[in-house]
Design a protein that fits this description.
Number of helices: 7
Number of domains: 2
Structural class: mainly alpha
CATH topology of the largest domain: Serine Threonine Protein Phosphatase 5, Tetratricopeptide repeat
Protein name: Tetratricopeptide repeat protein
Strand content: under 5%
Pfam families: TPR_16
CATH architecture of the largest domain: Alpha Horseshoe
Largest sheet: none
InterPro entries: TMTC_O-mannosyl-trnsfr, TPR-like_helical_dom_sf, TPR_rpt
Shape: elongated
Order of helices and strands: HHHHHHH
Distance between the termini: 72 Å
Keywords: Membrane, TPR repeat, Transmembrane, Transmembrane helix
Radius of gyration: 26 Å
Length: 148
């Protein structure tokens, strides 16, 4: 609800929703980030910085908080710190993407053996024979074309 209010330009309502989320769950780092975003949009980069630092304390590997902290620091004229924070965000984002890719690959390989992709043990055999047959037909066609 807070995000919806923020998108509508209803800052106070958004702030109330994000505050309620934090009151319910003090570790709700996304609500904390969104409060920082509201501070930043309202021209209060120092307050946004404090919120982003709190989020990073709760969730040190959250790339979004590091990136937004970099923006808040840049708006305060602290360019060196800003660049360092944004670079950290980029490294964390890349690390997260690589981890997700590995997990997806493992899950895909696991499904291959169970037949959930339609290519279980029997399906994999048919696929193999189909590829071999297709290769043989291609080779036959190429050889026949050269001999004709």
């Amino acid at each position: 609800m807070g995000v919806l209010h923020a998108l509508r330009g209803e800052g106070e309502e958004a702030r109330e929703q994000f505050g309620a989320a934090l009151a319910h769950d003090a570790g709700h780092y996304r609500a904390g980030t969104n409060l920082g975003n509201l501070d930043l949009e309202e021209g209060r980069p120092a307050e946004a910085e404090a919120r982003y630092r709190e989020v990073i304390r709760m969730q040190p590997d959250y790339d979004g908080a590091h990136h937004n902290l970099g923006v808040a620091l840049r708006r305060q004229g602290r360019l060196g710190e800003s660049v360092a924070s944004i670079r950290r965000a980029q490294r964390l984002s890349l690390k997260g993407s690589q981890r997700e890719s590995r997990e997806e690959a493992r899950a895909g390989l696991g499904r291959l053996g169970t037949g959930r992709l339609g290519t279980g043990a029997a399906g994999a055999g048919w696929l193999r024979w189909g590829l071999l047959g297709g290769g043989a037909l291609l080779l036959f066609g190429l050889l026949r074309g050269f001999g004709g």
